[in-house]
Amino acid sequence: MRVASPWRSAARTDPGKVRARNEDAFLDCPQQGLWVVADGMGGHQGGDIASQLIVASLAELPVQDDFDERLNGIRQCLHWLNRRLGQELTVTAGRHDSIMGSTVVALLLEGNRAACIWAGDSRCYLWRGQRLYQLSKDHSLQQQLIDEQNMSIEDARAHPSAHALTRAVGAAEQLKLEVLELEVYPGDAFLLCSDGLYQGLTSDAIGNALSLAVPRVALERLFDAALRGSARDNLTAVVIRQ
Questions:
Q1: Ordered per-residue pLDDT tens for the chain, 242 residues
Q2: Which is one GO molecular function term here (predicted)?
């Protein structure tokens, strides 16, 4: 029998002010110590199929007692989904210029152990000791230009293909996942979110929201601030804290 989760969380998604369809999806499962945000891409409803498939598949994973086994299970599941989405695409689209895929960022928590797993530009933030840390690093052309060509953030952002992803589930034959493991401290708060949310917010706005003790209230603060802006993309976020 599993004991009650020490983690409290709240999740929300919104299509934003411009897009008719929401291609984001989330998993909010404190009793399993697992949370996910997926931001779909690809026309003809390919994006929302991909993001929902990721969330549904991860939700069905068995809850094992061993943290490392669970982490491995998440990785294997995402690799399997990458192959499946690639096959779906060849069957349904018959075109080489379309992609049915999705970013993914997942957080696994158990005891004092945490693991963040991601591909794409959906993010994981940590609020600790009155400071905000971005745990994930975007798999995007913008980030690649900054890393490899020493471009300034402003110049990289101005690039016409800045938002193009360099990794995503379903985007390439081989999926490269990034994993960051860390120790959890009392008072830690985490945020998983799609780019539609963080693009409209400053780091201060994110930190101020995560400093609030109740996840639902923190979430409302984040969405209120983001929806005051242009909110051109779908917005999704999950706030997790002890």
A1: 456 778 999 999 999 998 888 999 999 999 999 999 999 986 545 788 899 999 999 999 998 889 999 999 999 999 999 999 887 655 544 444 566 899 999 999 999 999 999 999 999 999 999 999 999 999 988 899 889 988 888 898 888 888 889 999 998 889 999 999 999 999 999 999 999 999 989 999 999 999 999 999 999 999 999 999 999 899 999 999 98
A2: protein serine/threonine phosphatase activity
Q: For the chain, how many structural domains are there in total?
A: 1
**CATH number (domain holding residue 115):** 3.60.40.10
Enclosing domain of residue 96:
8-241
> Distance (Å, rounded) from C-alpha 237 to C-alpha 13?
7
The answer as to whether 60 is a domain residue is yes
